[in-house]
Design goal:
The chain has 516 residues and is α/β, with parallel strands linked by helices. The chain is built from 14 helices and 31 strands. The protein starts with a helix and ends in an 8-residue tail after the last strand.
Amino acid sequence: MNLSLAARNLVRLPSTHPRLSALFISKRYLSATRSLSAKFFESADDAVSDIGDGSSVMVGGFGVCGIPENLIAALTRRGSQKLVVVTSNAGTDEAGVGRLAEGRQISRMIVSYVGESPAIEKQFLGGEVEVELTPQGTLAERIRAAGAGIPAFYTPTAYGTLVHRGGEPMVYDRQGNVVKASKGRESRIFGGRHYVMEEAIHADFALIKGWKADTVGNVVFRRSAKNFNDPMARAARVTIAEVEEIVEAGEIRPEDVHVPNIYVQRVYKGTHFEKPIEKLTIHGHEAESDLDPVKERIARRAALEFKNGMYANLGIGIPTHATNYIPKGMRVFLHSENGVLGLGPFPEENAVDPDLINAGKETVTVIPGGSFFGSDESFAMVRGGHIQLSILGGMQVSQYGDLANWMIPGKLVKGMGGAMDLVASHSDHTKVVVTMQHTAKGRHKIVEECTLPVTGKSCVDEIITELCVFQIDPLGGLTLIELYDGVSVDDIKKATGCSFKVSPDLKPMQLIDILE
């Protein structure tokens, strides 16, 4: 039924009709709904014209994938100052939030990773920009919580770290000294496990990038460009969607809508899209990044952790390289924090898609049966224990399984990305494996206690190095279970900075066969 006709018919009822007052409310409601529906703009500059000095702005995208590039350019032209920007990472100076930094428009950022923007790095270290580093999954959930009306929540992510205890660098002076550090967060125990309280993040505006919108403001995303755009669309007072195409209402099936129009206030159809790619990676052209024999050995041992039908998340470097050794016929669903399940190999040159990248920002493909989702759901899979295996690199691992892999004091802190969320998934359902070289320039990396700021406490189940494999018990410590050919237990004692037990069933280090 046509709603406007229905409303006209309803108010013709006799004044004595018992439903009259309710019907007048219905008519008033319909009128109000129309006035609040999405407005469509022909100009990006007009769409952002009321983003003034001091506004808080969420900017969607992951790296430079799925960024609202035309809206960012318009906000750059507008020149608004002292902006508080919430984003996954800053991208580069040529694309993404880095463009706003070029114009010194940002006073504060809430971000999981600073990114590859020299302008932001310089302003952060020079005391011009305050940066609140937040674990990527926590950031996504803080944004999602705002849109859902939840003021705060508890998460296992980051317990025992600087995020929880306080002390993260937020503001430097011009000499590189920390003049403002983060405060500690409240924590509680639920079911015998420690959790940290995090508060929701609201914003005045959200700039998001969609693929299509219909004429009433419903939005859909394309492939991995969904990422942070999805939760951010719900968390701001005014959401501005930049899209590639506008279709008639009804052309997007209701079950295919990603962001219902109730969350979208403005829509702008972009006129030009560069769709930059940070790390163009082509199948067969990645040979120049092949690992040296030592790291390859670690990757070949790590590949034995894969099981058919498993869901796994892999960090960049050695963990990702391990996928080259997945046996033929074995199916592993690789999860990527930016919202992909079922990562495939790097694409052929004619199949490169800027809307499809992995967490390392490399171009990829998806296998049959793969799926895409927002960053908030991606990390819900992680925290919820739905990933069976997580492999990542490390700078230090303690004898009881603490991991440090995100920060070296005295050097630029770029951020923790999703690492704290991944190790917080450690449980009976998720095995956390660290792959790394046994020592670094003669210094121990397996130690009694981490001297670097930790990524997670008692979170590592297994360490794979070029020399051996350790199992870790959070109470019993390290046990040597595999030894590489030609390496002795005494060699491991010299290369390890803490005590360990030797398994009575000590085996030669297993390596998967190299596929032809």
